[in-house]
Amino acid sequence: MTTLPKILCLHGFVQSGPVLAAKTQGLRAAFLAAGYELFYLTAPVPMDSGITELADHRGWWLDDGIYDIDAGISAVKQCVLSEGPFVGVLGFSQGAALASALVAHPEIVGHAFFHFGIFFSGYRLDPVDYQWIYKEKVTVPTLHVWGDLDTVMEESQSQRLLDSCEEGLRTLLTHPGGHFVPQGKLMVDKIVKWTVEVSGKERE
């Protein structure tokens, strides 16, 4: 039985793997048709409502401006060991910020190489402690997708992540929507086509 190449998917803040999977059914189906499997990992940090833990709402770190990514890195490292290898990584919002660290330094999760990164509404890790991640520009192909009407992530924040990637290896796509992973056929086809081209895998 042939194993499809896997793409690791990292959800946004106050989401989960199953939530992102449900919100990206069209993208997942298109990737499967192209010969790729999307693997959705759930973040390790629970969100506390003050009354009870919200099992379906998690984060890679508490988004309080002074955050610690160690738990998120550990979760990805365990995932790489049990479910890897992964040919690339895809992230949305907070998940895209973590994904940017993974494509820049895959060794932090024990992964030899991610061939590409796909960032939806992405941004750089801001704390001073993590600026070493961006000391050198990301040197694998990256796709940056953001919405013209995104009121959660400022374009300037996503632009900083774009500028952290090698100019000849980065691609920008915009859509006329907000803070979400676009599921329109035209945009989905562009994303999958880009992935097939940069990974060197032809559609079957």
TrEMBL record:
Cellular component per GO, a single term: cytoplasm
This protein's UniProt keywords: Hydrolase
The UniProt entry, under InterPro entries, shows:
AB_hydrolase_fold, FSH-like_dom, LovG
- Keyword Electron transport attributed: no
For the keyword Hydrolase, the answer is: yes
PANTHER family, sorted:
ESTERASE OVCA2
Protein name, per record: Serine hydrolase domain-containing protein
Organism expressing this protein natively: Babjeviella inositovora NRRL Y-12698
